[in-house]
Amino acid sequence: MKALVWHGTTDIRCDTVPDPHIEDDRDAIIKVTSCAICGSDLHLFDHFMPGMKSGDIMGHETMGEVVEVGRGAKSKLKVGDRIVVPFTIICGECEQCRRGNFSVCERTNRNKKIGDAAFGHTTAGLFGYTHLTGGYAGGQAEYLRVPFADATHIKVPSGIDDEKLLFLSDIFPTGWQGAVQCDIQPTDTVAIWGCGPVGQMAIRSAIMLGAKQVVAIDRLPERLSMAKAAGAVTINFEEESTVARLNDLTDGKGPEKCIDAVGLEAHATGSIDTIYDRAKQAMMLETDRPHVLREMIYVCRPAGTLSVPGVYGGLLDKIPFGALMNKGLTVRTGQTHVNRWTDDLLKMILEEQIDPSFVITHRVGLEQGPEMYKTFRDKQDGCIKVVLTPGRA
Amino acid sequence: MARGVPRTALSGRSRSSHDRTAKGLGYFSIALGLAELLAPGGVGQLAGLDGDGNKRLIQAYGLREIATGVAILASHDATPWIWARVSGDAIDIATVAALPSDRSGDNGRKPWALAALLAVTALDVACAVGLTTEKGSHKSANADYRNRSGFPQGLQAARGSAVHYASVDTMRTPEALQPWGSGDAGSRRSSQVHDDTSTR
Questions:
Q1: pLDDT for position B200
Q2: CA of A354: which chain B residue's CA is closest?
Q3: A192-217 in b/e burial notation, b at 16+ Cβ within 10 A?
Q4: I want to staple A386 with a disulfide (CB 3.0 to 4.6 A). Which of A37, A117, A156, B145 is the partner?
């Protein structure tokens, strides 16, 4: 089959690789009908996340049709079922899964020892996202093996476009969880850093959760225009001070709720702390660039909440923990507990409360995927979200 | 939808021909740098920079080459480092060009050294310009998505439309930690939300 394969820093190729097959009773194989490139895939493309090996198949936003089912998954899936695959692999049985904390499933990371060593305790296995999280093949391919398939799936009805459903795999529930973690009140101003795909979903989630005011922060006009379309007030941080404008918008008190939809590769050009981070990163003395975290801690209203759906990978420097502690801020983080939210989110899509396909800017075949990584990374051609369709010319 | 995607990448690959050239220049830079660092006499002879006094200078240039080469290979964006190589080329050319012609002219090494340097400089400039063009020529000043709300029933209908979903309750602030007094949260929250949405 064809698949997008990681070969090294910024080197992704569309290769022919062996087809996947059932390896365990609980597996299923799907024929991929649509998949997407996620912003967090760029952390792998640029090799900021450790634990990739040459030959790894990329991708964790995938949907398709079940073509083969292992004996242990037959009670929940059958050939022909249409499913979206959540990016977190879940067993559905461990203590964390039973509590709904799916992204920290205790069983699905088959490289648990590495996960334990890196994070103290392992997190869930993820598709196509380093050997720290199991080294599972990803879904930017013609076929995907879904481990623990009896639990790791979202069944979706026929008669509705892939494009409306595909993002149940990651960015829609991730933006939703980012907003829900804020416990939004009707009087709240919610500030969201980053207007990429997850930021766009977080903006719409905050609107639907009844925030009084949503403020979107980015530097790219096309992303800000998409944020404005959903009713957000926008701040271009290359044209004005984020902190000053947020204080202006909140009578000098700061936003009650802040969401970091940027993560470890902040692009705050010209800010002193980012220059510092880039220098330390180049010398391998720091893994991440946490400009957004620092700014959120600084500007958030005392007793407010910080929500961090943006991905961080390792060691962060110069975090103003004094401000965090003295202002009594609540911090909520985590990879997304996808299946915890998807029943509700699917209902919202079917009832036409939201159509997540608004975020798609580029549709190409799988073979064009490698070059789209670069287009997406460099924000060329108005690129915000790329959907790949195997078999499309 | 992909209106003007730049087709700079090699077929089925994320890297363009300029990316590959940059990688090659990175290895070349390290190899040349090691030669300058470890065998400054030999390199000096080839370039017409004879004499013990020039060995330190050649070794310093070698360190520069190694640093640039490592940066090219380690960085996810080689563009600034290829431009750094162009600057280094200018220094090298100036150094060789400044040699008195009677020191190198006899055996013809100076013109050859200059020609070699100019050839490498041309390759560096072509690569740097190519990478810069790939990155910068398709920025999206004209992309405008202001008609993409994502709300099929309109923005007003969307405001507050999801507050009743059961999943939201799982992330509520614990009762004991909720604000009290005349605050806007706590036990009054639910009725406030419903009042608010009913007026929309």
A1: 44
A2: B151
A3: bbbbbbbbbbbbbbbbbbbbebbbbb
A4: A37
